[in-house]
Amino acid sequence: xxxxxxxxxxxxxRIVRSFYDHKDEVFTGEWMGKILKSYLRNVESKTxxxxxxxSYPMVQQSLRSGLEGYQxxxxxxxxxxxxxxxxxxxxxxxxxxxxACPCSAELTEHARDTRGAYGIPxxxxxxxxxxxxxxxxxxxxxxDLHAMCVRALRTETQVMxxxxxxxxxxxxxxxxxxxxxxxxxxxxxEFDSDKRIKDFQIACSHxxxxxxxxxxxxxxxxxxxxxxxxxxxxGSLVC
Length: 239
Fold this sequence. Notes:
6 helices; six-stranded antiparallel β-sheet; Urate Oxidase
């Protein structure tokens, strides 16, 4: 929170009491807004900001065997409220996927065709960190963000895997090879088309299995000529 220059002693217990006043309510973006209003009123803050991180479970089905299991997603809700009552809502969402290198796939086929040499294209576990700002009056939920990532990238890492699932996953990686720049652009196209999202930033990290350093690509929608979202990001892109 932001205080006037001459104020001091924000009273830590008063901050905690703002949560307890709403402890029996459902955890949503609106719930966070109520707490931020309490901050402004009780602590005499100029602005108030709150970010809550959690692990969100979703049941995912295997590709062919019909098995099911819980996939856990790193998510954070964040709200920013100013003294004039303007409230901005952000969602942070991490999506872990596999990225097969298009260049490595071509080189492997070339070795097989020209020298009869057996090779395996390299792929790596990768992460997309999505930060979106919700448009005013619009609401979007975690499952929506997940579905958009799946449509864009196709190769989400799996929970339950039998041999037929691993084969299906290998086929998916072969059908949807991608460099890190490809992944960022595919996600951009998906998120840019959703009117519930005012602004967003996407950071993709491919944890290279060939190189000893990672490949990272960052792309943003950018309203009014630049990325305007005012959010906190303390996490790492490492999977």
